[in-house]
């Protein structure tokens, strides 16, 4: 792993949804969930042993947090008296496997389903000098139900030292909290469970988990309305962006262009050959205000920047691409900028060095107050001026013209329903993955429209 990656690790407490994404990314890098659970449970046992207990009680819920507790109990059973209380119910995957492994260790196992079950085990609480709380993990919410509520009450009444796994179960009086990989808000110590830093710094399939799903009762337009403005000297560019937006989940896409191409899925707004003048500007501003996101720039040429500035300012969310990337810099209410190295130099006055460490600092420092920069290259760099994410999906065959237009359209569609930073990072990942899949099927002769066949499958496929 390059040592420079450690500089971009976010030190803030991590949210549950982001942790799930990192774990999924770690899986894609070859670290299994079983390995992560084993590492977490062993770290939990080692943390417990630091208190030199003589009798340990492990409380396990139905989820992965309970699986961590089963692993910890298995390690502790080697050296001391250890009992385990676990909540009844269906278990799947790693948690179920570790419960099965624990049954072969010869320690007392007690399955509980109600308050009375807990009451019958009161002696275990009063005799323990250390209790491991692995009842509810980072996804817990709402009021406690039985038998967990009684477990919490009995643990709090016990004189035992309470060690919580990752996050304390709501209401429990933890003496120590061992977080796994990163603090989830409150932690007295943090255990490394073998997740590569790349799983956090680079985009991956886990990032797709944050995409909002359409509800069963979703109506036409729920996925968002996108406006694409472009197509001066380069006729096909705005249509590629528009089709990519549809494939990425937008429901309605307008393309404002001087050229009418045969794309029945897109709604064409005819413009004169030169995109300028008050009447054209007013028309585009009207559509921009009605759109959920606006892409400006694909194929536009250099002669319409006055219109670009005014249309961008009317947009709630804008994706600024290609020829629109020039000074003065256009900006919407929220903005994603998608330059390649040359456009970045033109729009932000800075050159990409080719060194990822140096470039990350350059791009981060170039961010405006409301802007996200997605700098395209062999390794894409996405930043909001605080967070930095890298993307390394893609293949050399994607040097063909039009792939940047595809990226802009994907970003715009996601931007309709997601925050700008997450939309930009996922767009970079998905566009690169679509290129990889297209190259496998076609080879170096792929064209930009070939990527359209894979975008929806990568974003929303099972």
UniProtKB/TrEMBL annotation:
Domain of life per record: Archaea
UniProt catalytic activity: (6S)-NADPHX + ADP = AMP + phosphate + NADPH + H(+); (6S)-NADHX + ADP = AMP + phosphate + NADH + H(+); (6R)-NADHX = (6S)-NADHX; (6R)-NADPHX = (6S)-NADPHX
Keyword NAD: yes
SUPFAM superfamilies assigned: Ribokinase-like, YjeF N-terminal domain-like
Record text on cofactor binding: Binds 1 potassium ion per subunit.
Residue span, YjeF N-terminal domain: 19-201
Catalytic activity, EC: 4.2.1.136
Domain called YjeF C-terminal: residue spans: 203-462
Name assigned to this protein: ADP-dependent (S)-NAD(P)H-hydrate dehydratase
